[in-house]
Structure formats: C-alpha cells, structure tokens
Amino acid sequence: MENSVLKKRTILVLLVTIFTMVAEIYFGIITNSMALTADGFHMGTHAFAFLITLVVCIVAVAYRDKEYLINAWGGFLSAIFLGMTSLGIITESVMRYFHPMTISFAEAILVASLGLAVNMLCIFVMGGHEHAHHDCHNEKEHNHAENLNFKAAYLHILADALTSVLAIGALLCGQYFGYIKLDPIIGVVGGIIIAKWSIDLICSSVKVIFAK
C-alpha cells in the first residue's frame, strides 16, 4: 500500500481511536466503571502506535529513495511497542489469576463489545487483510516490497480485536458457567499470540534494516 494512502487511512483510524478513548474514559469516570476507564487508556496505547505509523508515513513520503527502510524502522518501533503491550496483558492476567477480582460481567461484556466494534471498523478502513499473515523467513526482496509500517498498524488493530473476542468468550463462560479463572487464562493465551506477532514483525524489520 502506498504511504500516501496509508497516511489518510491512519489519520481516520487515529481519530476514531482517540474519540473512543475519550468517550470511554469520560463515561468510565462519571459511572465509576474501572473496566470502561481501563479500556479507554488501553485505546490510548493504540492511538500512540497509530501516531508512530502516521509520522513514519510522512517521513517516508519525503524520502522516497529510502521509503522501504523508513517503513521498516516504523514497523520495528511499533513491533517493540506491540511486544510491551503483550507483556502487560500477560503480567496483568497472571496477577488476576492468583488474585481474582470481582467482575461486573454485563458491563465488561459491553465494553469488550464496544472495543470489538471499533476495531472491526478500523480493520475495514485499513483494508489490510492481505498483510495479516507474514513469514519471518521470506526472501529479502519480499521484505523490501512489503510495507512493514502498515503491517505494524494493522497488527495493533488485530491484536486489540483478538483480545476483545477472547475476552467476550471468557466473560460469557464466567457469567453463565462460573469459570471465573478462564478470563485471566485466556488473557495469557492472547498475550502469547500477540507476542508471537511482535517477534515475527521485529524479525522481518531487522532483516530489512540490516540488509546489505
């Protein structure tokens, strides 16, 4: 995908994410909902990642001769950030497994559903399903052709959508079958999957950055 097109789509996704973040934090505060407030701040981390993507797009357009390299650096930075997100999810999930918290299932499911709806909209806007999967061992020429900056932005959205889907499933099991500890277990699984995506993207980016 051309950086000029990615720039426009990233701006739209960034605006949607910021709007959702502000709305969730605001309503979380006035309704005393920690789940809603926490999800709002989580949206903020993705907004920061999209901001990285946007800055890289602008720089890449200005330096066409180094476009693939700049995109690789953008992908690398976002992959690091994605990895940090996965570690945060795993850490929080482990803590909640050993120290369970009271869950307001109806409210939590509503928040997760809202997050999923926003992510599905962003996935549609980015239109990047063909970049969802990538083999870290692809040839160097393919790495140069692939926009790793775009892939990083797409994986951030996909990661958020995945956590929402897994959370909804775990919450439904907890609400109707009493499997309370399934929620943190699913959180660890989701975190591991996201970590794998991060490692693959770091590997792809490094191969381009240090290619001779």
How are helices and strands ordered from N to C? HHHHHHH
**Computed CA radius of gyration, to the nearest angstrom:** 18 Å
> Tell me, what is the CATH class?
Mainly Alpha
* Percent range of helical residues: over 70%
Strand residues, percent: under 5%
Number of helices: 7
Dominant shape: globular
Helix-strand category: mainly alpha
Number of domains: 1
- Report the biggest beta sheet as strand number plus sense, adding barrel if it closes: none
Report the strand count. Answer: 0
Poorly predicted runs are: 129-144
Q: What is the element layout, followed by pairings?
A:
Layout: H1 3-30, H2 34-62, H3 67-98, H4 105-126, H5 140-145, H6 148-177, H7 182-209
Helix pairs in contact: 1-2, 1-4, 2-3, 2-4, 2-6, 3-6, 3-7, 4-6, 6-7
Notable features of this structure?
mainly alpha, 212 residues, Alpha-lytic protease prodomain-like, 83% helix
Structure description:
The protein is mainly α and 212 residues long. The protein is 83% helix and 0% strand. α6 (148-177) runs antiparallel to α7 (182-209). The longest helix has 32 residues, at 67-98. Residues 129-144 have low confidence and may be disordered.
